[in-house]
Specification:
Distance between the termini: 37 Å
Number of domains: 2
CATH class of the largest domain: Alpha Beta
CATH architecture of the largest domain: 3-Layer(aba) Sandwich
Strand order of the largest sheet: 6-7-8-3-9-10
Order of helices and strands: EEEHEEEHHHEHEHEEHHEEEEEEHEEH
Shape: globular
Number of strands: 18
Number of helices: 10
Structural class: alpha+beta
Largest sheet: 6 strands, mixed
Length: 334
């Protein structure tokens, strides 16, 4: 399979007076696992559908492997899309579902069955080849949908919230499976999700969207450790946004220490104490609403309870100044 670089140049989508995507500029390296992350309505799925050709861009260009594919239908782009609903044909067997795209392309029955079985082997589903979708579990149906998307040898695989319908344990297993497949195939995966954990675990490139634009993009570590805006800090989770000396700052919850009143930089009231297994989550109200992730050793040394007044302490080296989203920076640079 061939690797390809995907580039979006000023891609926008309008529905009447509503702007769903606002001139997105994005370059995804060949063979990368990219997650488009953000809350409902941020434009991530619309962006994915414009890459696929299932939505027509109102402006801008989609360039795949150096070729402008903006005006091409989905089947001619070199992409394949795995839909959130899986969209399997209920009257067809598993192997026929996977082979269907090859049938449309005119391949002979023997060849399309061989290629379909190869993709089913890739996702460990060959023993279910003659079953119908209704006879499969949700996780098995997902594997079939994945095999069907891969049977056309796409340059880019597009996944629309592929894990959202699965239970938590299966979601973790399938997450690892997706990463394995992407490494094995060496093709570009673009995966839409609203789950921060999913994006951080899978991505070479995290693209966090808000209100139709890119708020921040970078490696998982870059986005988590150095959020650029208050929105990123709050959405990515485990971060506090606090104000000090007129500046807005981000501070990770595990870097906020609870101390005796008067011994810290400021005081706060404990509003809740939640046991989370490997740490205790303490929520606090004061000058800012904050939270602290306290390990069990620290909690035993300095136990706190709902209603307590505590001091808050942190190191200056652990705070990250917050600024403007990437979209604003791009306008400024232009």
């Amino acid at each position: 399979m061939h690797e390809a670089e995907l580039e979006l140049i000023g891609v926008a989508k309008r529905y009447g007076d509503t702007v769903a995507v606002r001139g997105v500029d994005l370059k995804i390296p060949a063979g990368a696992y990219c997650c488009l992350l953000g809350p409902s309505g941020c434009g991530k799925t619309t962006t994915l559908r414009m890459i696929a050709g299932h939505e027509v861009a109102s402006a801008g260009d989609v360039v795949l492997g150096g070729r402008n594919v903006t005006g091409l239908p989905p089947a001619e782009r070199g992409t394949a899309m795995m839909f959130q609903s899986y969209a399997l044909f209920p009257h067809m067997s598993v192997v026929d579902n996977v082979a269907f795209a090859l049938r449309v392309r005119g391949l002979k029955k023997r060849q399309r069955r061989e290629e379909a079985m190869q993709r089913l082997e890739l996702v460990e589903m060959t023993k279910y080849a003659i079953r119908r979708p209704a006879e499969l579990s949700g996780g098995q149906q997902q594997r079939v949908a994945l095999a069907r998307a891969l049977v056309t040898n796409p340059k880019v695989l597009l996944l629309d919230e592929p894990l959202s319908a699965l239970d938590p344990a299966l979601r973790l297993r399938m997450r690892a499976e997706l990463k394995r497949l992407q490494h094995e195939l060496g093709i570009t995966f673009i995966h839409v999700t609203h789950s921060q954990d999913e994006a951080l675990a899978l991505s070479d490139l995290v693209v966090l969207m808000k209100d139709g634009h890119i708020e921040q993009s970078g490696t998982a570590r870059e986005v988590f450790d150095t959020p650029k805006t208050a929105f990123v800090a709050r959405f990515i989770g485990a971060h506090n946004v606090l104000t000090e000396a007129g500046r807005e700052l981000s501070l990770r919850a595990d870097k906020l220490d609870l101390v005796a009143p008067g011994a810290g930089r400021r005081t706060a009231t404990v509003t809740s104490v939640e046991y989370q297994g490997h740490y205790v989550l303490v929520r606090l109200s004061g000058e800012d609403d904050l939270s602290a992730m306290v390990d069990e050793t620290a909690m035993r040394a300095f136990p706190v309870h709902e209603g307590d007044t505590v001091g808050l302490a942190w190191d200056d080296g652990d705070v990250v100044p917050l600024g403007k989203p990437e979209a604003d920076e791009g306008l400024k640079a232009a």
